[in-house]
Design brief:
Order of helices and strands: HHH
Number of strands: 0
Structural class: mainly alpha
Helix content: 55-70%
Oligomer: single chain
Strand content: under 5%
Length: about 100
């Protein structure tokens, strides 16, 4: 198997495994807010990834997996954009230093 296929399959497999262990329980910050009774001061916001799931997908595991894949794709795009910016800035700095 070539490196490009492996670089594509391993992150997707990792997201799949992580989605199997995702919890619906509150995270630590939310637990602290509940324990110290300031949870009611929080402002509600709408998000397509609310609770790390999509509301229109019935299966919890499938919903979490889909959310993870979309998050992974967004991170990849952000990485590519950042890489292009850094490379162009490095090239510009290198050319100016000549």
């Amino acid at each position: 198997m070539n490196k490009k296929k492996l670089a594509f399959i391993i992150p997707i497999f990792t997201v799949f495994l992580a989605s199997l262990f995702a919890s619906k329980l509150p995270d630590t910050l939310e637990t602290i807010a509940i324990n110290y009774e300031f949870i009611n001061k929080a402002k509600e916001t709408s998000s397509p990834f609310s609770g790390y799931c999509f509301p229109f997908v019935e299966n919890h595991y499938a919903s979490t997996f889909l959310t993870g894949i979309i998050g992974l794709a967004l991170l990849y795009v952000l990485f590519k954009i950042t890489t292009k910016i850094v490379k162009s800035l490095a090239k510009l700095i290198y050319e100016e230093s000549k």
